[in-house]
Amino acid sequence: LAGFFGLIGILLQHACIMVWQSPLSNLFVVPVSLLFTIIAVHYTGKIVAPWIPRDHSSAITEEEYIGSMALITGHQATSGNPCEGKLTDQFGQIHYLLLEPEEGKIFTKGDKVLIICRLSATRYLAENNPWPQIL
User: Fold this and answer.
1) pLDDT over threshold 70, residue 9
2) CA distance 124 to 40
3) Of 20, 48, 103, 126, which has the maximum CB count within 10 A?
């Protein structure tokens, strides 16, 4: 913005000196330069915009954890007693969650589990990997 403003002001003063052999008053040059600067920035932005990268967020919602595979990193989990699990999302970000198994099942450290549903704000229900030969 400042570059356009300065360049337009200098070019305007140069043109006036070439035509009338005297510079214009700053009270006239500043508003005219500002007007042309706004126009120049607008059209330059339209030309440059396609090449500027857009913002792409790698944030995912907590609901998107459901259906993902996680690795149990805590010692042991039973129903009602969750332990820590590590989930890596599609962007490579690591998330640590509290995971607990269904009634009557146990998770131990190193188990791969599938997250089934959200039980509360901090806990998720999971089951042992149903496809150990694939995932």
Assistant:
1) yes
2) 55
3) 126
